[in-house]
Amino acid sequence: MKYYLIAGEASGDLHASHLITALSAEDPAAEFRGFGGDLMQAAGMTLLRHYRDLAYMGVIDVVLHARTILRGMRQCKEDIVAWQPDVVILVDYPGFNMKIARFIHERSLCPVYYYIAPKLWAWKEWRIKDIRRDVDEIFSILPFEVDFFEGKYHYPIHYVGNPTVDEIASYRSSKAAAPRSGNRIALLCGSRINEVRDNLWMMLVAAAPYDAAYDLQIAGVSVLPREVYEQSIAKAESCLGRKIRVELVCDVTYDLLSSATAALVTSGTATLETALFRVPQVVCYAKRFPWLMATAKKFLLKIPFVSLVNLIVGHEIVPEILLTDMTPENIQRHLQDILPGAPAREAQLRGYEEMAARLGEPGAPQRAARLILSTLKSKN
Known about the structure:
- The protein is α/β, with parallel strands linked by helices.
- It is 50% helix and 16% strand.
- It has helices at residues 10-26, 38-42, 59-64, 66-83, 94-107, 128-134, 145-152, 163-174, 193-207, 226-240, 253-258, 269-276, 290-300, 308-313, 328-337, 343-359, 364-379, and strands spanning 2-7, 31-36, 46-50, 87-91, 112-115, 137-140, 158-159, 184-188, 215-220, 246-250, 262-266, 281-285, 320-322.
- The radius of gyration is 21 Å and the shape is globular.
């Protein structure tokens, strides 16, 4: 069969690459094409466009880069029509992907499947009508989504497990994880330019008092220009009036987490990865115009937490420092609470065990691949 996949960020690229590998094992004649990243391409997909060309987040950044996004969307639609896939598999990235889903549905081109569903439970809950109309099957990676889609809206979905569990299990089995050094603080500031720009400099200011006792390391991604990170370092050093002892390492986040003592992490998949490596963390998330965003959050956000760790267990395990509360002083205070010897550290580690139990065992890509193939055969 011919599978068209669309992912719009680093975590989607990672998860989709493993799904491609699993689909190849189930369907030896499979062909793959789409939008994504280096990992999807390495797994066997013909890459039409890289996600870094379209990876914009938030209303302001989307408006500023609307022409680029619309050009990419037009190219994607034309390519789907020309290639005529048996299924389009969307991976998160709802602002772009839901428009593609509607385009495909209106023309009855092929089934539309969603792997890593849009986070309607967080905001834009009204999009459920679009899901009903335009998406044929959802393969969920978050256990609480079953209650949301099936319990609240009677829309059946498949919970397949969480691929991050598989990815970390695979990492640990393929190489001996480095022992905990006891003196490393990891800074995970996101994979988009605006995330790095808005968050990293405050993380650095907060962690700088510990740069003599701990190695500070930034988990970067090579798809972003090095200058993006250097500008944030320079801004933090200007605020402090001194140099910060910090190192930028790219595309080795798991290596970094496997030996980290503590971490400062932007909200997203990275919070889950950090928890599965059993690294105590502080979740940090800033945006431009924080007062405006905080006001919008009160009216639009439908959930009590933003980090996946807290959402999965249903109560606070990791502290969340967001928007107007995001200051170097607040981050530093919570960071101090999770360093060795602090009671909050042990409480987090106990909470991580509860979270891991709820996620379940490895095997998510394989379960998803088998279900995708069986549902496609039944539809045909």
